[in-house]
Design a protein that fits this description.
Elements: H1 7-23, H2 40-53, H3 71-81, H4 87-91, H5 97-107, H6 110-122, E1 127-130, E2 147-151, E3 154-165, E4 172-178, E5 189-195, E6 201-206, E7 220-231, E8 235-236, H7 242-278, E9 280-282, E10 285-286, H8 291-320, H9 327-352, H10 363-369, H11 380-393
Parallel strand pairs: 1-4
Antiparallel strand pairs: 2-3, 3-7, 4-5, 5-8, 6-7, 9-10
Amino acid sequence: MDFSIPKELQKILKEIHEWMEAEIYPMERNLAGKTFKDILPELNEKRKAIKEKGWWLPQMPKEEGGMGLSLMDFAHVSEVLGRSMLTHPVFNCQAPDAGNMEILVQYGTDEQKEKYLEPLLKGEIRSCFSMTEPDHPGSNPAWMGTTAVLDGDEYVINGHKWFTSAADGAKFAIVMAVTNPEASRYQQASMIIVPCDTPGFQLVRNISVMGEPGADYGTHCEIVYDNCRVPKENLLGPEGGGFIIAQQRLGPGRIHHCMRWIGICERAFDLMCTHAAKREVAPGKPLGTRQIVQAWIAESRAEINAARLMVLEAAWKIDNVGTYEARTEISVIKFYVAGVLQKVLDRSIQVHGALGMTDDLPLAYWYRHERAARIYDGPDEVHKVTVAKRILRQYGITVS
């Protein structure tokens, strides 16, 4: 199990980081008091530069216009990109589009790929993923109330979704809905493509999260499907295959998330150490001379390093053995890295004092938006229970 970074990738990572420091970090203050929609012209200009540099779609195969990186190599890229909240959209590897691209590549028909995948890969449109419901726990994707009933040549979709991220401005949604209610638990739901201009697709609101409803990329939307009719050709993959497709999507997706979180941790750590070295609490006495600050720095360094190795192990296992065989490692990194993220951000804010609470730095933005890391993709508690059950089976104990 080799976690060393190939020399060519090291060069790319260095160049990306230098480009971000020159082109992306200065844009972050422009986001204060604004939304992603307000800075789209600037982001689109940066996207042109990324295409010219050959860094576009780092998560996708070359035949799809991407960099052709392995999951392990993309993990390293995602960490660097994670150092700013603006960079993943600029490289066209942001959630939920990245996951939707992977689903369409694997399960889309030729017609679906031409209509939805190709413009998504080019960055001409955006998409959203509509699974979570306000009336059912998001941690149980096998239990939902949204239905899609086949009526002649059309599916009629009815249901209520929320936290459909990035739906504001999206051209289509991939919706999970029950098509086979009489089937076994994990074969009831299907994935269906729904253009967002379809009659019956109702974007109720951009849900305000910790005071921010956001716009465009940075939204979590409430959606009502009211007799929403789409052609049966919009079925994505086999009928009843929604749960399996979702699991295949979420495995690599958690690698993307976790390495992005580690990138956030590294930026927060760097800001914390820089401030500790420069900010004086008394003449000639910088913050870094205080033992409690030294302890926070040491603990953060150890936890970030451990988190990175755990994620790389999971990525290596997915690449070499498969997502199913790596499911324990995937669950472990989800809750562990999310916890490290919260601790490192909190320490960095504390070291910065009042400055840490302002939008002069990216810390407050991440603190607002990344608290959800311990909830989305399954709450930490569910992953911990799942991991414990698998381990206990090895000791002869079956826990229901």
